[in-house]
Specification:
Aminopeptidase, 137 residues, 32% helix, alpha+beta, 4 helices
Length: 137
Amino acid sequence: MLHHLDAYARLYVDVFTRPPWNETWHPNDATQRLHDILTTPRAHAVHTTDASGTVTGFAAGHRERHSTADHFLLQEMCVHPDHQRQGLGHRLLTDLTRQLPDVTHWYLLTGRDTPAAAFYQAHGFRPARSQAVYVRP
């Protein structure tokens, strides 16, 4: 997974510094974040490429044990804007599901009223009913 780290970081910066996210990401910070995710125990990632081999999308996270079953925290997922709405996000989720058939519960964090929320809901995710995210400054 780490051999794709630079490509993932370039894509991450390109995607998340644009609308609708407009976040401030520098390559070194993105590389550190993605390195942390990819080196987490039981990490797993998938990606898509174009005809030239350039990474066009990726999804990454890790398994977590909960009682007698594995859950998967999808920590980051993005598709290059030029390749969005072509089914690549669907393919990334499908690839993860196929590669992790014994995962019983999938979860992620994203903004409530974002295009990402609509995408995930269209792919079977739903807002949690019994749990909330708490933040502290």
